[in-house]
Amino acid sequence: MKFWEPAAIDVSSMNRIVVLEFQGEHGKSVATALSGQLWQNEFYTVVDRTALSRDLQLASYTTDNLNENSLHALLSPARAQGIDGVVLGEILEYRCEDKRVRRLAANTSTGEGPSGSRNANHPGGAGGEFRENLVREGIVTIAFRLVDVETGEIRAADKVSHTYAGDQEGTSGKLPTREEVLAQLTEQCLAEIVDMMAPHEATSQIQLATCDIWTRGRREVKEGNRLAVEGDWKQAEQQWQAATRIEPENHAALFNLAIAADHRHEYVVAEEFAMQALRLQHKTCYTTGLDKIRAHRNAAEKTEEQRDARVVTAADEGWQ
What we know:
Layout: E1 2-5, E2 16-19, H1 27-41, E3 45-47, H2 54-57, H3 68-80, E4 85-105, E5 129-148, E6 154-169, H4 178-197, E7 200-203, H5 218-229, H6 233-246, H7 251-263, H8 267-280, H9 284-319
Parallel strand pairs: 2-3, 2-4
Antiparallel strand pairs: 1-7, 4-5, 5-6
C-alpha cells in the first residue's frame, strides 16, 4: 500500500528555499543533487542558488560553526530575495575502498593428494583452501541544517549515513564500481534528507483476508486476492463485491474492500468496511489492518495540513 507521509519537521511558512553549496569534497554536486530531489518532490519552490545575489552565493558555512554573525550575514541577503529557508550542509564522509582478504573456502574433497597423503593446504586434514577475495566497502555521511530565514531558527539539524559492503571471490561475480557505490550511497542519503524535509510517498503492508472453506463467496474472495497481488485493484474489488452479494456477512470480502478503499486513499470508507468486518468476526489481522488504515488517514491529514500551510503562506506573500 502507498500512502503520504508528512515531513518530520515543522515546514510551516516554508515555500521558497535554496540549497547552498555544501562543505567538503563533492559539496557542490551533492547540493545540486539535493536541489533536484527537492524539486522533484514538488513541495517547495526550489530557487537556483546561481540565480541569487553574489552575497548569498558566497555564503559558505559548516554545519558545526554557524554563529550569530555568520548567520546574520547569511540571512540578510536571503530575506532581501524572498527566501523562506536556507539549507546548509557538509560532507562528513565520502569514500569507497578496496582490500584483499584471504579466506578459507569450503572444499568437498577429502583433502588427500593423489598418493593418499593429506594436502598441505588443509591443516589437520580439514577440507578447504585459502582464496583471495576482493572486499569493496563504501560510506557516505552528510550533515545538514534547514534555517528559517525570517527568524533564524534551525528548523532541522541532522546527519544521515549509508554504507555498502561487497565481496567478490576471485574473478567470479561483479561488484559495482567505486563511483557507482558512492553515487548510490549519496542518493540514499539525500532521499532520507528529503523525507525529513517534505511530505513524501511511503509504503506499508496490510494482510489480505481469506475465507474458511465453508464460507459462501470464498472463490470470489480468493480470485480477488490474486488480482490484487498482481496489481489489478479494480477487478479485485469487483470480485470482493460479488462475494458480498453472495454472502453479505462475508467478513473477509468486507475487510478486503477496506484495503481497496485504503489503496484509493478513501480512508473514511476504508474504516467503515474494516469495522463491519470486525463486528462480524474479531480477528487479529482485522484489528492490525484497521490500525494501519487509521495511521494512513492521520498521516494523510497531517500531510494535507502541511501543504495547506505552505499554500496559504505563499498566497499571503503574493499580496504584500
